[in-house]
Amino acid sequence: MSDKFVDVVGIGNAIVDVLAHTEEDVMTRLGLTKGAMMLVDAERSAALYDAMGAGVEVSGGSAANTIAGIASLGGKGAYIGKVGNDQLGGIFRHDIHANGVYFETPSAKSLTPTARCMIMVTPDAERTMSTYLGACVELTPDDIDADLITRSKVTYLEGYLWDPPAAKEAFLKAARIAHDAGREVSLSLSDSFCVTRHLAEFQKLVREHVDVLFANESEIKALWQTDNYDEAVALTREACDIAALTRSAKGSLIVAGDNVIEVAAFPVDRVVDVTGAGDLYAAGFLYGYTQGRDFADCGRIAALAAAEVISHFGARPETPLSELLLSKLG
């Protein structure tokens, strides 16, 4: 990468999303929990794929979506993640490069296929995800580019990465390198089911390694095991320096020390698909943060980015976010 410094490097599960509109009765027949993200094996993945209607295949993965969003805003983004040496791996690599993101992680040497996520979107725009991790689990500490981490203002990690053991070690290695270089570490909790699976480890991770935390309402409640949102906010304030907590149509809350800033959701004519809303919120916030904007501005850029992605099918921006930023927020 020719530029000396990078705004944000994301580390995550490199996944190709398969999206399709799905009726509620199909969800019930398939035994899926609406709104959740579930890990599935290759056989279940194939069965779900066969049951889906006509759809589209696009590069995805939580952290990759975030970094693509940062690039769309005009920021300098890089990505670390493992794909297979197959057609879907080629699709992922082509798409992320086309988005202006630096991505040079070698493909898996094994025959393990690239990860894919079957995303079923019901008429209310809610998405249910069934993920086969595939080559993602082959990300190891050896894939962490120490020089790239050192040159990045923020290293952004997705909570989903905590499932594969080797990826977990890669995750922690990157965090140590970033902090040793005086850089910052950011984490998205990703999913309340993911938080519950690794509760004690996530609580320790947030307290000891995370500078900027992203979570929605259900995730932050799950992290602190409380049904009281205000209590969850108070516990979050004690645990990390900065937290951006999203609440869908209610907007978001940014907590940073004594600062508590409420940010309204950006208006949308019609919500089509909420896939990627949290990812693009993080993109907007981190873009603003790495450009030196104040927290209120970071929140507004985040809300704008999230609004763009929920107004259409898929988890990547269709309109360059830099153009929207100039026209809507200046």
Question: Would you write up a description of this structure?
Answer:
The chain has 330 residues and is an alpha/beta fold. It has one domain: 3-Layer(aba) Sandwich (UDP-N-acetylmuramoyl-L-alanine:D-glutamate ligase). Helices cover 41% and strands 22% of the residues. The chain has 13 helices and 14 strands. It has a 9-stranded mixed beta sheet with strand order 6-5-1-9-10-11-12-13-14, sandwiched between helices. A 5-stranded mixed beta sheet has the order 3-8-7-2-4. A hairpin with a 5-residue loop joins strand 12 and strand 13. It is globular.
CATH level-4 homologous superfamily: Ribokinase
Determine the number of helices (DSSP H or I, runs of at least 4 residues).
Answer: 13
Ranges where pLDDT stays below 50 over 5 or more residues in a row are none
Number of structurally distinct domains: 1
Structural class: alpha/beta
Distance between the termini: 29 Å
**Strand/helix succession:** EEHEHEHEHEEEHEHEHHEHHEEEHHH
The oligomeric state of the chains shown is single chain
Binned strand content:
15-25%
Q: How many distinct beta strands?
A: 14
CATH fold title? UDP-N-acetylmuramoyl-L-alanine:D-glutamate ligase
Radius of gyration: 18 Å
Sheet with most strands: strand arrangement: 6-5-1-9-10-11-12-13-14
Shape label:
globular
If you average the pLDDT, what whole number results?
A: 91
